[in-house]
Every structure is written in structure tokens, then in C-alpha cells.
């Protein structure tokens, strides 16, 4: 059973901003059914679940689950299902909490709990844009170039317009380094190696890496002493709305108002 202080969207953003000002690591991962499926598969249960294989090479479920479980204990912000229609389903929060017990995961003493939907909610009321404004941003995603192009060329979905400051493009980043993530454990390590080779000092990292994001968030936050934020499918929805969230950003904003 998870038992951490709960913070709302503004509180989570403040937590991240404080870490940025203090130049301290801040790893955030939004855990959901993908992580739940992986952790159970890593112990030999429900190995058929398709999300247990998402972005993971054949035969790597156990090693990736071990990596994920260890990294959860290093997270500063633990995103858990709390709002939205899917959070009410039995295979979301209950499966995750049972997996924590299965792996005997112990959280950091200074860790806090966020709504797993905070990765969407941080887009609203200009939270995300304020964090990346004028900063050097590292992007790790399977379409990192696409997200970089959208942020630089204003190729954002139209229904996001009310939630994106656009006066004189004042929210723009200083620079963006896109790192494209390949599949499997080798893909995760290659991404870390590519970051080192780029000799790019980021001020914040935005990640969308499936279940492997937990390990990558913890590693990147600690290596660079920066916030490393799991945005999940937000990385895709920011530049190529896929229909995974029927109703688009308007529906996510409704959830945001209900949750905050």
C-alpha cells in the first residue's frame, strides 16, 4: 500500500521548480497499467499482458521489471491513478499497489504522490510551459524529433491553444536536445550514452518511454541534478493527437478541474 504525502498539480509544479532552483535531482514517473503489467510479468504472472511487452525486447521482462522496481524506490514524485475514468478500474491502482508489495518496494522518505494524470494537467494553466521557458530541454522519446519540431514550430494541437502562452513566443526554450529511444534495455542504455556523447547540459528533461521511463527518469535526474519528468503519452499528444484520449485536450481539462 502506498502511503506518501499527496500534492495537487500546483504543489507538484512547485516541488519541481524548487528542485530546479536548488539544482537538485527530481525524478517523476506517472505509474499506470503498463508498469503494473511489467512488474507482475517480472515475477512470472500475467506474462501475456501486451503492456508487459511494450517497448521491451523478448525475454527481457524480468530484467526490465527488476530495473523498474529498483528505480521506483528512487523517485521523488510517484504518479498514481487518482482521477479520470480509467483510475476507477480494478486493474489500475490496485494492481500497482499489489506489485509494490510483490517487489517489497520502499519509497524515498522525501517522496510525494501525484495524480498519474499530472503529466496532462501540467500542460494547463501554463505549468509546463513555465518550467521549460528559456531553459535547455532534453527530450527522450521514440519520436523525440517530432516533439522538438512541434515545440519549435508551434505545431501543437489546436485544442491546446487556450493553454499555451503565445504572446511574443515568450515561453520558448533556449535549446532542445532530442534523443530517440530504441527498444529494449539496449535502447535505454544507448539513449543514456547518446546524452553523454552530446555534451549537452540540460536544465530539465521531458520523457515518454513506456515503462522504461521509471529507470530513465531516475538516472537522468541524478546524473544532471535536474527534474526528469515522465510525460507519457503527452509527448505524442502535444504534436500528433492519436485519439487515445477521446475528446482531446478539452476532456483532459475537465478532468483537471475535477481533480484540482
Characterize the structure shown:
There is one protein chain. This protein is an alpha/beta fold and 260 residues long. A seven-stranded parallel beta sheet has the order 3-2-1-7-6-4-5, sandwiched between helices. It has eleven helices and seven strands. Helix 3 crosses helix 9. 42% of the residues lie in helices and 13% in strands. The mean pLDDT is 91.
- The class by helix and strand makeup works out as alpha/beta
Helical coverage, percent range: 40-55%
Strand order of the largest sheet: 3-2-1-7-6-4-5
Strand coverage percent: 5-15%
Poorly predicted runs are none
Number of strands: 7
The whole-angstrom Rg is 17 Å
Query: Mind summarizing the main beta sheet?
Result: 7 strands, parallel
Distance between the ends: 23 Å
Shape: globular
Question: What is the residue-averaged pLDDT?
Answer: 91
Order of helices and strands: HEHHEHEHHEHEHEHEHH
Separate helix tally:
11
